[in-house]
C-alpha cells in the first residue's frame, strides 16, 4: 500500500525537507509526496517546480501533487506541518477532510505549543514531537535558500507506535535527511526552543543579526539574560536538560553564520506578521503560570507586541 506524506508549509523548513523527500521519491510507487500550498507558491511550484539552493548546489524538485484543495490532496498517512505557528489552526482546518484517524502529525514549528494545539483539533490522532536545526528561508515564492552546512531533524513520541516511528525514520534516511529518532523528545524539542526563542526575541528586539549580538557586550548580556529566564522555566517544568545548557546554546549560536538572523526578525524587518505568540509571549505566560519573573522576555514582548498589532 502506498504511503502518502503531506508537506504543509513550503517555507525554509517545509520547503527544504519536503524538497529532499520529493526528490528521493519522485519515481517511487511506494511513497507519494504532496505539497500543500496556495497562492503564488502553488502556481510557481506547479509550473516550474520547487527550487532549492545551498552554498554548493542547486536543485529543482517536482512533488506528486501541489494543491490546497482537499479533494485533490486526498487522505494522508503522515502530515509534516511547517507553517508559521500563528497559522496552525486555520491551515489544518482547511485540509480537515485529508485527515483520517490513522493520520500521524509531525509538527516542525518554531515553538513547543504546537502538539497540544494540534491534539485539541484532532484528539484521536497521533501527534509526534519534532524540531529542526537549519538556516533556510524563502528567497521568492517557490525558491528556498539554505545557508551553511547545518541541517538536522529530530522527532519522536512517548506514545506512538514504534513501527510507525521507524517507518518514518526509514523514509527520512532514504531521502538523505539527517534525522534522528529520539526517546527523550520533549527535552530535545525544548533544547531547540531555548535556542530559537532567545535568538528570535533578542534579534527582533535589538534589531541585530547573530554576529552583531555576539560582538556587542551589552547585546550578548541581553541574550544571556533571555537564556537564563527560559532555562529556569524549563527547570521548573521538570525537564531534564544538560547542566550546561546555556553554554551549549551560546556555542551553538557561535557556529551559526554570523550574517544570519532569526526568521522572526526577518518577518519584523519585512513588515510581516511574526511568531511573537509562540516564541516570546509563551515564555512570559509560562512565567506567570509558575510564578517566576521573566523581566527580559517581558521587555521584548511589550516592545514587539506594539509592532505586531500595527501589522
From TrEMBL:
<dbReference type="InterPro" id="IPR008927">
    <property type="entry name" value="6-PGluconate_DH-like_C_sf"/>
</dbReference>
<dbReference type="Pfam" id="PF08546">
    <property type="entry name" value="ApbA_C"/>
</dbReference>
<dbReference type="InterPro" id="IPR003710">
    <property type="entry name" value="ApbA"/>
</dbReference>
<dbReference type="GO" id="GO:0005737">
    <property type="term" value="C:cytoplasm"/>
</dbReference>
<comment type="pathway">
    <text>Cofactor biosynthesis; (R)-pantothenate biosynthesis; (R)-pantoate from 3-methyl-2-oxobutanoate: step 2/2.</text>
</comment>
<dbReference type="InterPro" id="IPR013332">
    <property type="entry name" value="KPR_N"/>
</dbReference>
<dbReference type="InterPro" id="IPR036291">
    <property type="entry name" value="NAD(P)-bd_dom_sf"/>
</dbReference>
<comment type="function">
    <text>Catalyzes the NADPH-dependent reduction of ketopantoate into pantoic acid.</text>
</comment>
<keyword id="KW-0566">Pantothenate biosynthesis</keyword>
<feature type="domain" description="Ketopantoate reductase N-terminal">
    <location>
        <begin position="5"/>
        <end position="157"/>
    </location>
</feature>
<dbReference type="Pfam" id="PF02558">
    <property type="entry name" value="ApbA"/>
</dbReference>
<dbReference type="InterPro" id="IPR051402">
    <property type="entry name" value="KPR-Related"/>
</dbReference>
<keyword id="KW-0560">Oxidoreductase</keyword>
<dbReference type="GO" id="GO:0015940">
    <property type="term" value="P:pantothenate biosynthetic process"/>
</dbReference>
<keyword id="KW-0521">NADP</keyword>
<comment type="similarity">
    <text>Belongs to the ketopantoate reductase family.</text>
</comment>
<dbReference type="GO" id="GO:0008677">
    <property type="term" value="F:2-dehydropantoate 2-reductase activity"/>
</dbReference>
<protein>
    <recommendedName>
        <fullName>2-dehydropantoate 2-reductase</fullName>
        <ecNumber>1.1.1.169</ecNumber>
    </recommendedName>
</protein>
<dbReference type="InterPro" id="IPR013752">
    <property type="entry name" value="KPA_reductase"/>
</dbReference>
<feature type="domain" description="Ketopantoate reductase C-terminal">
    <location>
        <begin position="185"/>
        <end position="306"/>
    </location>
</feature>
<dbReference type="InterPro" id="IPR013328">
    <property type="entry name" value="6PGD_dom2"/>
</dbReference>
